[in-house]
Design brief:
667 residues, mainly beta, Neuraminidase, Immunoglobulin-like, 4-stranded antiparallel sheet, 67 strands
């Protein structure tokens, strides 16, 4: 009798239709843009578009039909709403955001940074394709770049007669709706963060050279200052004759003379990293980097958070240990903790003198975190109280922190290399010999070897706990290593262009991206013998050691996943702006593995044209063949005979015989 690794079905219908569910996250987070129309306010986040019909008192998430990576702009015509995303392109709604339709026909570059409307046209500024124009509500797009010598467009704005485009190297104007462009050399060839056109007045904000102002439709320009500089204005909005501006890291300003003199308006503002501005009646609204939306009266400028129902938190890492979930939050909010599976959260920052946290891991009874400016911290599991543990390690920007076996490995930014601790972080030793790279991203152990991934130099291998390192990139075509994963027999490397696998603990690599393709792989995890991969565009599952991957992102609003963890019942996924999501292990795996004896055999496997089912009992068997998504392809009653699979595409299939399921590969 042959011993097989068998797979018992949890129910193939559940494989196809199970979905990720959101955890109940704290309110606020990253809000990228905000706009008002009529009595409605819309804010674009990485968790979708939120709408308020009560002046920001409450919000509802609108994502039906919407693909989200980062909503960068919202604009309105008489009957439609247009939304721009910096990965998925343009979307249209004709019912105030309840339903969205993708409108990317002819839009060769879907990385849309900015959108502007006139009565006749929609303009989209893209990250590499220049400006695109549509005359039919976005149904069709065409590039309009004649004279536009830089195609990286950060901002577009039109008042109906003058169209301005801010690029990575200066400002361009068009007076014929984008058919022809003229570069204005009086403004430095700097990175332009935003442009604003209002009749004869044009405002241009640069990242490094301040604010430039024209009062004659771009013929002449003057250089404006207030405070220390006018660099990096993110947004302008007009209310009556007053212009408001939000400056990255300095909050909100206003001008009553078309930008000549500016006054700060930041009373009570909780977050001066402001992305965008909007006005509705007598209220002003800002979308911020980490505190969601804030609201103020336009009469007294007293800002307050307005996030009821709005949650768009970035969680860069997640860890489950001792019945607690620990999640890293964006910006300066540090670590949050849940003891009820993500239903409620509380801050876990006691003793943490730098709440800009870069990574988290555990070793024995301790948890550790790395920070941007204060090095490594350690806390016990039960009562969270962080203490710095930097004896022997520079106090600085920790880019990677990992427990490998009984040891800790940490890396610091900008050629400071790797550090090793064998005493749970009490002391550290520098381990950089042979590691000539400016930033380490991750560590992994494999059969006694230690691997380190880097931002630009691929993988480094050490066989002596990091005392000596050597580059190990044979077969590795992409040298941006985002994440490493090992189970002591296989090693995986997630890069900016797919997945790689090593069968010899990092000495040589082979690509294994079938199904993931060229997506950016951000994180990986083992679930038993299965492998999860979180990418910038979905969660993927492999049942065959990484050779083939299937998308299991069902239900995720934001598919940019940065970290996984499991508590034995659920897998948790931390996203880049939509909080933490969870999915039952039994649901998303669809199958669970165990050892069992079988009274029949399937051969050959892999199969080319047909496979034979050998039944020792010589009884009729019901044989069903499913694809990896759980779709039934073949159903047949047989007794010791073959089943043809000529019509099936190459890939992984499940053959179900009674209650037992085999994996079969089709070449």
């Amino acid at each position: 009798m042959i011993n097989f690794l068998l797979l018992i079905s949890i129910g193939f219908s559940r494989i196809a239709y199970a979905q990720w569910q959101p955890c109940h996250m704290p309110e606020g987070g990253y809000a990228g843009c905000i706009a008002a129309n009529g009595n409605l306010i819309f804010t674009g986040t990485r968790a979708g578009i939120f709408r308020s019909n009560d002046y920001g008192a409450s919000w509802v998430n609108l994502h039906n039909g919407l693909k989200v990576h980062n909503i960068t702009g919202i604009a309105f015509s008489v009957q439609h709403i247009f939304a721009a995303d910096d990965y998925y392109g343009m979307f249209l709604s004709d019912n105030n955001g309840d339903q969205w339709t993708e409108i990317n026909n002819g839009l060769a570059d879907k990385q849309v940074n900015s959108v502007s409307l006139t009565a006749a046209f929609i303009f989209a500024g893209t990250a590499g394709g220049g400006v695109f124009r549509s005359a039919d509500n976005g149904n069709n797009w065409a590039a309009c770049n004649n004279g536009l010598n830089n195609l990286i467009v950060n901002s577009v704005h039109s008042d109906g007669s003058t169209l301005a485009a801010g690029t990575n190297s200066g400002i361009y104007l068009s007076f014929d709706n984008g058919s022809n462009w003229i570069k204005k050399d009086s403004v430095p060839s700097d990175y332009i963060s935003t442009v604003f056109v209002n009749g004869q007045y044009i405002l241009v904000s640069t990242v490094n050279s301040g604010l430039y102002r024209s009062t004659d439709n771009g013929t002449t320009w003057s250089h404006n200052y207030f405070g220390s500089d006018l660099n990096f204005i993110k947004s302008f909005v007009l209310r009556g004759t007053r212009i408001y501006a939000c400056k990255w890291d300095e909050g909100v300003f206003y001008s009553d003379n078309n930008g000549l003199i500016w006054t700060q308006a930041n009373n009570g503002i909780p977050d001066k990293y402001v992305n965008s501005l909007a006005q509705l009646d007598t209220n002003l609204y800002i979308s911020t980097f980490s505190n969601g939306v804030c609201r103020s009266s336009a009469l007294n400028y007293n800002w307050m958070k307005a996030n009821n129902g709005l949650s768009a938190m970035q969680n860069s890492s997640i860890l489950h240990k001792n019945n607690s979930l620990f999640a890293l939050t964006s910006a300066w909010h540090g670590i949050i903790r849940s003891t009820d599976g993500g239903t409620s959260w509380s801050r876990a920052n006691m003793g943490l003198t730098d709440t800009s946290v870069t990574g988290i891991c555990n070793l024995d009874t301790f948890i550790y975190c790395g920070t941007v400016s204060k090095g490594v911290f350690r806390s016990g599991m039960s009562n969270i109280n962080w203490n710095a543990v930097n004896n022997g390690i520079p106090v600085g920007f920790v880019t990677a922190l990992k427990a490998v076996g009984n040891n800790l490995y940490a890396a610091l930014y900008f050629f400071q290399g790797a550090y090793f601790s064998s005493d749970k972080g009490v002391t550290w030793q520098k381990r950089t010999n042979g590691m000539d790279t400016w930033s380490i991203t991750d560590f992994a152990g494999c059969s006694g070897n230690i691997l380190a991934g880097s931002v630009s130099d691929g993988a480094f291998l050490s066989s002596d706990n990091g005392l000596n390192w050597s580059q190990s990139n044979t077969g590795l075509l992409n040298l941006r290593v985002n994440a490493l994963l090992s189970n002591d027999t296989l090693l995986f490397d997630g890069t900016n262009e797919g997945m790689y696998k090593s069968r010899d603990c990092g000495n040589t690599w082979e690509i294994c991206s079938s199904g993931i393709d060229n997506r950016t792989v951000c994180t990986m995890a083992f679930i038993g013998r299965k492998i999860l991969a979180g990418t910038n565009d979905g969660v993927f599952l492999s049942l065959d050691g990484g050779q083939n991957w299937v998308d299991i992102s069902d239900g995720l609003v934001l598919k940019h996943v940065l970290s996984f963890s499991t508590d034995g019942s659920y897998v948790y996924a931390a996203t880049n702006g939509a909080g933490v999501w969870k999915r039952s292990l039994s649901e998303f795996t669809g199958v669970k593995e165990y050892e069992q004896n079988s009274s029949y055999n399937i051969f050959p496997n892999p199969v080319s044209e047909s496979f034979f089912v050998q039944n020792q009992d010589n009884k009729p068997l019901e044989v069903k063949v499913y694809d990896i998504n759980g779709k039934l392809l073949i159903s047949k009653l047989i007794t010791n005979e073959s089943i043809g699979v000529n019509d099936l595409s190459p890939g992984l299939y499940f053959v179900k015989i009674g209650q037992v399921i085999h994996k079969v590969a089709k070449w």
